[in-house]
Amino acid sequence: MDCSFVIPFFNERESLEILYHEIAGECARLDLRIEFVFVDDGSTDGGREVIDRLAAADERISLVRFRRNFGKSAALSAGFREAAGDVVFTMDADLQDNPCEIGNFLSALEQGHDCVTGWKQVRNDPLDKTLPSKLFNGAVNKAFGLSINDHNCGFKAYRRELLGELEMYGELHRFVPALLHARGYRVGQIAVEHRARRFGKSKFGTKRLIKGALDLMTVWLTTRYAARPLHLFGGGGLALSALGFAILGYLSVLWVLGLGPIGDRPLLMLGMLLVLFGGQMISVGLVAEVILRRTIGERDKYSIAERLGSIQRRELQHEVERQIAR
């Protein structure tokens, strides 16, 4: 089996050569044909020189180098474009992922999964990193109906054919299981060993909590409503308009019964605003539907697992006719 290892790194010079030898040794034991795709995400500590030295002695190594730090999603996307193996692994370069798990990932893929993500069941990280991670995983599972314990684990294995449909930008690498699940792929997980950090420090910060919440909203909206925007805007617009009409109807009854003036009531202004805002939301949804129909065909909205073309069908029909004639 041909396997590609996509390894983004950012200022992790000390761990690169160690990780390379660990992966190479484990894959030799498993008798796998492999390639390494290292992605230098704008490192300034000389990590590129380490990879250049390793590549001079091992033709299986290739390097993608960014001019500056663009983030992990961009690095993974660049690595995926270069990877050519039947199975593509992603690993962090901090040595916390143990290459001894490679065989377990391959076994999980053979059981029918399209993507397998690692689950750091026992984490060697401080509480200020593990607690936000649990909250994040719980929110993503709730939003997408998944039961993945560790969405953000960098140790994953993919079947090569699905990478063409995996579009990542910003911080969307943390939502890979959810994105693939939304496209109809089978996503699984296995428990993996999580080793203590040997070099450097974690790049996790409090800003990622805010970014994660915003990205969760982005992924949820785009995966659920990208093909039916009117359901999103129209549903909210109808609810607001219905509430507004109910308020205006109530005030109209009061006016007809002569129970007092309604022109100076704040409730009148609220009812009118709700009706107008609800109508605007419905209009936005309709415009979005028109734009969608003009820019994307119905066939582009779905992930096709298998297609039998008309030429193949005709060939099969002719073959059946020849068999009958005999």
From TrEMBL:
GO molecular function, one term: undecaprenyl-phosphate 4-deoxy-4-formamido-L-arabinose transferase activity
UniProt entry tagged with the keyword Transferase: yes
Gene Ontology terms: biological process: lipopolysaccharide biosynthetic process
Record organism: Erythrobacter litoralis
Any matching Pfam family: Glycos_transf_2
GO CC annotations, alphabetized: plasma membrane
All residue ranges annotated as the Glycosyltransferase 2-like domain in the record: 4-165
UniProt keyword annotations, A-Z: Cell membrane, Glycosyltransferase, Lipopolysaccharide biosynthesis, Membrane, Transferase, Transmembrane, Transmembrane helix
Segments passing through the bilayer: 232-257, 269-292
Protein name: Glycosyl transferase family 2
